[in-house]
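Incident review: delayed structure delivery

Summary: a single-chain prediction request sat in the queue longer than the usual turnaround. Root cause was a stuck worker, restarted by the on-call engineer. No data loss occurred. The affected request and its eventual output are reproduced below so the record is complete for anyone auditing the incident later.

Affected input:
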Amino acid sequence: MGLSIPKLQVLPEPKKMLLHEGVIRLSRETAIVVVDPNPQINRIARQLQTDLQSLIHIRPSLSAVPNAAPKGSIFLKLDTLLDQQQYILDSTGNQLQIYGGSPEALHYAKVTLCQIIHKCGANVSRLTIEDQPDFAARGLMLDIGRNRIPKLNTLFRIVDLMANLKMNQLQLYIEGVPFAYESFPHMWKGQTPISGDEIMQLSNYCQERYIELVPNQNSFGHMEDWLAHPDFRDLAEKPEGFEFPRDHVDPDMYPNGWPRPPGTLDPSDPRVLPFLERTYDDLLPYFDSRLFNVGCDETFELGLGNSKALSERLGKGRVYLDFLLKIYSLLKTRGKTMMFWGDIILQHPELIPELPNDIIALEWGYEGEHPFDLHGAQFASAGIPFYVCPGTSSWNSLSGRTTNMLSNIRNAAVHGKAHGAIGFLVTDWGDNGHLQPLSVSYPGIVFSGFLSWNAEHEHAENLLASYLDEFVFQDSEDKLGQTLLDFGNSYLQGTGTPRPNDTELMMLLRSDLDNLRIASQWSKESLDRMENYLLDIDNRLGEAVPGTDDADYIIHELRTALQFQLHAVGLGRLKLALKDRSAEPNCPEISTMARHQLDHLQQLLTEYMAAWSSRSRPGGFLRSIHDLQRLCNQYAALL
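Output delivered after worker restart:
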């Protein structure tokens, strides 16, 4: 009997999948037949050989002679009539036939076949799959520029996850010096940046899995680490720093405003482009990709400092575009296609048609209702190639924002496809210390893999937990996937006040102890409700039995993140006590609460260091906990 569709759910969901009666049995006589061999297809065949040995303890022989193949063999063949990433998997006859429009497409077919064998074992259902992705580029961007720089084996683990989801592009976001720029060793001395040699190792690992490693370096805004150094401070638009725009600041978090150090380069300074050229020429030789993401988002101070007169004369949008085009020229001479974040040019939509038509705009937004539809239409109507770039919703959260993540990613996929986006790039940022652990980002990465391949998969949300359990965590109890998704919805247990791109518990941890505005919106009952929700998640984490080789890391890092959230609940109670008893600052009850909080946070920082060290390099750890150490000092002042 053939298998029913519910028992053979392939993810990402194929465009067309038909199941038939009967099975093909793979046996020790099975051969993997490479029709018209070449090195790339031979490598795929060897990978399949290894995968089958792991999955069903059969290691088929490799053959290049189709006529001699026994019944139940697997054929790999290029078909030039298929699109570049299109494949057909057909097991209706006596053999299992795989056709691909390219070696890359055969790789995707191999991934599909291995998932089927994982579910069916050696008795493979007779079926026909015709499949290809909705987005030619399906990528993940990891922030390595804000404190947390993954170890190389952590990056390999992420690449393997991406490969199983048929994703094909990885970007490591760089601001500051998480990369060892050889022309600027004084900038990273004593730190633990990723080296050029490691980039080449990672690139080779990616290429074997048909993933393109794309360089990514911010080049206009987000230059704080460079501009903090005396050698580069005078390249800033406002070397003295600036006040963050009030419309970008939560007044409960920063009631008195938010003064910031310089972060944007001065586009009118002739020394800026040679500086960027030196960084590019240190970075780019280690990458094979012809793409380069130069960032250029959030240039908050532009036109407020050294370029003020120029901006008043030409317009801020024109100054931005002119500088962008100068960077574009630098890349053209280096044979690179420029990618850039589209937020600033979208503020000046009349200038979008002036962009070169071989540039790639990156349309980003991280809330569920972000206007991907409107912005995609603006780039499409101007003939500018673009990606849609949602987020994992992991940052500023500790546990994620599951409901927001699901709607944000689906919104991007649906409207990106509707407007002809050439790529989908899910982003995983590290704002405010990059406190969230890697496991919290997995749901957003996996869901992006689902929808960047098939944007019209209607019920993908319902399959996310089971995929996490089966393929990411290998949880024999099928508990961890749903527990993680529910953990990511802890933000919904708060006061109900919208906090775009943020969460209330993280804001409590980051705010000064004497800032009572956020805590004042909580009640004792709402804090109790949050605590009970988190304690239930903690109990459920204890029931999970992940089977991966990093299982201990997973549970430890999730429980550490949960303890930080419980600490924030205790902090909320302390702040409410301070508010209610402001006339008695030396109240014994407050001193007792502060002592408990201080002891708990110091213990937590020890646990956090252990969790950090399991996946990340030591450089950046102290910066990650800067706000938490400040909080320790503020607790101590109450004792």
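Verification: Residues 1-6 have pLDDT under 50 and may be disordered.
Action items: add queue-age alerting; document worker restart procedure.
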